[in-house]
Amino acid sequence: MARVDVKVVLLGQQSVGKSCLVDRYINNAFEAKQKNTIGAAFAAKKVKVSSGRVVSLGVWDTAGAERFESLSRMYYNGARAAVVCFDPADRLSFEKAMFWVRELRDTQPECRVYLAMTKCDLLEDPPALGPADALVAAPGSDDSAGAESAASKQSASSTSLASHSGLRREVSDEDVASFAKSVALPRYGPAKVFPTSARHGRGVAALFQEIGEDLSAGLSAEEPRPPEGNMPSALN
Known about the structure:
A six-stranded mixed sheet has the order 2-3-1-4-5-6, sandwiched between helices. It has helices spanning 18-27, 69-75, 91-107, 147-156, 173-182, 204-216, and strands at residues 6-11, 40-48, 54-62, 81-86, 112-117, 192-195. It has one domain: P-loop containing nucleotide triphosphate hydrolases (Rossmann fold). The protein has six helices and six strands, in the order βαββαβαβααβα. The chain starts with 5 loop residues before the first strand and ends in a 20-residue tail after the last helix.
């Protein structure tokens, strides 16, 4: 049973790459073929924020298939952050992302939304993703041993996006910017957008680090959240 400070839920269409993002972030691994998530899968990881505080993120990877939509709603109850995923080469996944935000707002109106553009390495003209993520574990976390070795391996395999297959974008930067503004919360402004590549390890750690930074400030006057429990690690 993991103690969780911040509950994070991933939402999006089936096969959009939610589980690959989680697998890259939690395990520093990538498997192109993932088993479909049934219900949700849970994982937790500690992140050290700029204030020096170590925050435990509880990450719920929800099922994207329509037949599991009612179950997914159960898992984002109480979430403080939602990572809404879409593939910029798949317009339907973008429309589904908008659907999930509407669903989220009905029950969790104050939940902060972060937009993750997935599979950016496959685009004909991939966006700038920055250097490879440095996934170094927070002090005291269970995976601190060997994290440096894992990070160096990831860096070595992530120096280029030259292997992209040249898919054309169906979602423009203007579409994304408009979407980000539409889900703005008065206190925080538009949703933050993160182009990512789970395959190459780009933008993934930055996404979750930003969530930890943004939400850690509100924890100072609160008790830690109770354990979220464990779920099978069947990642979608």
